[in-house]
């Protein structure tokens, strides 16, 4: 199941060829990757990913959890961050990439703690998907304000 998507993520296909279901899976896998960055992947982070997927894609709670489960498998098999994020950068408009960074901050802050590993991964992904540091900082501030 994941082999075809992994080939598309790391191959030479054009961004228009990344089907919506693959884009959903890739973006959700990115959220899983940031949640796992600190070595702790807990129920709060999983629930946050499920809520983000449900809201973003109009999914039921069951379908969002299923998507997250599939994304966990993809994330475990996915290539390095550079090839993984390249397809997202090419296939997703800037405004939506900003929303991805905001979702990543939402997941990182779900457990109430920020680790250096999580911060480092968000900085790397921000750069790799072509979002400015300023916009990433603003995304973090929006998430923090919504939690207050």
From TrEMBL:
Entry-linked SUPFAM superfamilies: TerB-like
InterPro entries membership: DjlA_N, TerB-like
Q: Start and end of every Co-chaperone DjlA N-terminal domain? A: 24-141
Q: Name one Pfam family in it.
A: TerB
What is the recorded name of this protein?
TerB family tellurite resistance protein
Question: In terms of domain of life, where is this protein from?
Answer: Bacteria
Q: What is the lineage of its organism?
A: Bacteria, Pseudomonadati, Pseudomonadota, Alphaproteobacteria, Rhodobacterales
């Amino acid at each position: 199941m994941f082999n075809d998507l992994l080939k598309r993520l790391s191959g030479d296909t054009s961004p228009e060829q990344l089907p919506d279901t693959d884009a959903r899976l890739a973006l959700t896998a990115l959220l899983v990757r940031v949640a796992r960055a600190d070595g702790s992947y807990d129920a709060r982070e999983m629930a946050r990913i499920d809520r983000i997927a449900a809201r973003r894609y109009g999914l039921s709670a069951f379908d969002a959890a299923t998507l997250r489960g599939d994304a966990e498998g993809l994330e475990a098999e996915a290539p390095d961050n550079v090839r993984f994020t390249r397809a997202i950068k090419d296939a997703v408009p800037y405004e939506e990439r900003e929303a991805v960074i905001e979702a990543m901050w939402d997941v990182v802050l779900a457990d109430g703690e920020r680790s250096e590993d999580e911060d480092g991964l968000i900085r790397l992904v921000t750069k790799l998907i072509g979002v400015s540091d300023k916009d990433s900082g603003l995304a973090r501030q929006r998430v923090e304000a919504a939690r207050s």
